[in-house]
Design goal:
Number of domains: 2
Number of helices: 4
Helix content: 40-55%
CATH class of the largest domain: Alpha Beta
CATH topology of the largest domain: Nuclear Transport Factor 2, Chain: A
Strand content: 15-25%
Length: about 130
């Protein structure tokens, strides 16, 4: 009887510890400011595709640069894909402007928003 009770208590403690570990991992993922590889692949690619459709006439291809989370949203820095594309974009912009675009994606509503210029600063990871 006591061996059965001991075994049952050990199994219960292991199961409780495992559930606590899972809860901790989910909590850390929710409060983290980093994006996962899957989020970069899925949502970052969606932002790039969306912006590539808008820039077809400029003949510039785009790619995902840095990515992070801020204010509960996924934030992607979209940059020109090659050195030639950088040169095309930079020559058309004023000297103080960067050729990178910030694309935010809200998973809850499914809304994408592109920010450039001064709006960009609100979404930067260092603020």
């Amino acid at each position: 009887m006591s061996r059965t009770l001991t075994a049952l208590l050990i199994v219960t403690n292991v199961a409780t510890g495992y559930q606590a570990w899972i809860y901790y991992q989910r909590h850390q993922a929710a409060i983290s400011s980093k994006t996962t590889d899957r989020e970069r692949e899925v949502f970052g690619a969606a932002c790039v595709d969306w912006l590539n459709e808008k820039t077809k006439e400029r003949e510039v291809s785009l790619a995902v640069g840095r990515s992070w989370k801020k204010h509960g949203q996924l934030v992607f820095e979209i940059i020109p894909a090659s050195g030639q594309d950088w040169a095309k974009v930079v020559e058309k912009l004023p000297a103080e402007e960067l050729p990178a675009v910030i694309c935010t994606y809200d998973r809850q509503s499914g809304v994408m928003f592109a920010a450039t210029g001064s709006e960009r600063d609100r979404w930067m990871f260092y603020e």
